[in-house]
């Protein structure tokens, strides 16, 4: 039974889902990084919000970990590169808290425009300062959106409803989408010049870090107001403080901070600053949404291999997963065979080709190619799986090509994996028997029919009488039982292949003897 650890405060709905789906779940929010590292080893899944930092050290301490589920949007607290390198899928819930966060940004805009928090504090303190709090109307004002994705679009919709003019800076926003949303797509400089209010809705990346830098804050209109409900680090906090105290900016509303938890900041002393403690996603509805969604997604992956909303892996729907699973196993086995033959021959890998023919060509091929890659690379590089194989191949400069053949051959479905090195090419092909059992049907273009077995021996020889008898005798003399025996040849008297499955690994001394037999070209033990 898979085990999941929830290390942040998630709605109890998540625990219920995991248990109902047969997953053992432990709820331990608030652990220190060292405490978390000490207990993570047995878990298959880790569910987090933004408080847990899923670092390289944590991932390295988690040999069983298969999936990290972020109950929320931002994954900047997860070291996705390390997770990928260790074959761990990282998934988030990209829509579950979008409305709630957009509403928080709008609430912050109202709070700023009418100084509601400060006015409330003053009124509760018994001071009736009716003349102190003079606000501004939102009607007719210009809202500048930096980032117009899921949350930015909802903010735009609400702002248009308030009769604001909305301008948006987002390099990935199409003109068509901008028109649909009723926003004007502009360059960042134009936004900074025109906006009365600026609201940020981008992830924190190398490109967006400090997007409201000292220079960009200075470009804002005098009297403009800034709202950040996205991520600390998007705004230069020291420069913001200076712009507010100098009177250049009229106010700022911050839900997120460079350092969190933010328990002290010079900004807290300013009257025209409204702060909340990263509450953007904090509504009952949003927390229920993200908890249910992350638990279902993680359970799907752990139980059936279905992948949704993964940051580092192609999607596999729950409907596809059962159909893909046997083909993934076939792709992985073919890859493992091609990889082992390549290791035996040596050489620098240049390319890996995966060919699809028949029904399999109509399936979702990305996970199949990833499985084939994982199979090929694992014998050469160790801990490679479907998650990290494409990255590993890219890092090593290995070209990956996928080919779909229209032609129909002897098999309803055929998968072929070829490894190209600076020396030669090695290809193996297979199919599924009864839609479930992987079967090898071709090695180096030579037809051969064999099931995969944990221990096999692959021999190439000259197609002349005498090989089979001597080969059988060597194994028999060593007390090695041949479980299955398969032969193939390119042409009469030409290159021939022999693939046998054994009841265990072949001892080195016996292998050496096989290699010295007349007619034998090479002998390679295979493990699956
Ligand atoms: N305060 C909170 O509690 C809270 C809650 C949810 C999300 N968030 C934050 O909000 C962010 C946005 O969420 P979303 O769901 O809208 O994400 P999204 O991916 O749908 O949208 C992000 C948008 O930013 C744009 N973008 C990327 N780089 C940019 C750049 N250099 N300049 C301008 N635009 C750029 C993208 O094109 C995209 O349209 C998340 O990444 C997360 O960090 C915060
Ligand atoms: O990216 C997000 O989804 C938000 O920042 C929410 O973070 P939280 O789950 O810690 O509230």
The CATH fourth-level homologous superfamily of the largest domain: NAD(P)-binding Rossmann-like Domain
Distance from N terminus to C terminus (CA atoms, Å) equals 24 Å
The whole-number mean of residue pLDDT values reads 95
Categorize the overall geometry: elongated
Beta-strand content bin: 15-25%
Radius of gyration using CA atoms only? 30 Å
**Using DSSP, what is the number of strands?**
22
- Helix count equals 17
Low-confidence regions: none
Give the strand order, joined by hyphens, for the main sheet. 8-7-6-9-10-11-12
Number of domains: 4
Q: How would a crystallographer describe the biggest sheet?
A: 7 strands, parallel
The set of bound ligands, ions and cofactors reads: nicotinamide-adenine-dinucleotide, 3-phosphoglyceric acid
Structural class: alpha/beta
User: Which CATH architecture of the largest domain is right?
Assistant: 3-Layer(aba) Sandwich
Task: Output the keywords.
Rossmann fold; 60s Ribosomal Protein L30, Chain: A; 4 domains; 7-stranded parallel β-sheet; 6-stranded mixed β-sheet; binds nicotinamide-adenine-dinucleotide; binds 3-phosphoglyceric acid; amino-acid biosynthesis
Question: How would you portray this structure in words?
Answer:
It holds the Pfam family ACT. Residues 457-517 form the ACT domain. Belongs to the D-isomer specific 2-hydroxyacid dehydrogenase family. Residues 106-280 form the D-isomer specific 2-hydroxyacid dehydrogenase NAD-binding domain. Its EC number is 1.1.1.95. With 528 residues, the chain is α/β, with parallel strands linked by helices. The protein has four domains: 3-92 and 285-304, 3-Layer(aba) Sandwich (Rossmann fold), CATH 3.40.50; 97-275, Rossmann fold; 315-452, D-3-phosphoglycerate dehydrogenase, domain 3 (60s Ribosomal Protein L30, Chain: A), CATH 3.30.1330; 453-527, ACT domain (Alpha-Beta Plaits), CATH 3.30.70.260. Helices cover 35% and strands 25% of the residues. The chain has helices at 12-20, 33-39, 56-60, 80-85, 98-114, 116-124, 150-161, 175-181, 188-194, 214-219, 237-245, 284-304, 320-345, 365-381, 389-395, 467-477, 508-515; strands at 3-6, 24-27, 45-48, 67-70, 89-92, 142-146, 165-169, 184-185, 197-200, 224-228, 249-254, 273-275, 349-358, 399-405, 413-421, 425-433, 437-443, 446-451, 455-462, 482-489, 495-502, 520-527. The chain has a seven-stranded parallel sheet with strand order 8-7-6-9-10-11-12, with helices on both faces. The protein has a six-stranded mixed sheet with strand order 14-13-15-16-17-18. A five-stranded parallel sheet has the order 2-1-3-4-5. It is elongated and about 110 Å long. The chain starts with a strand and ends with a strand. The structure holds nicotinamide-adenine-dinucleotide (NAD) and 3-phosphoglyceric acid.
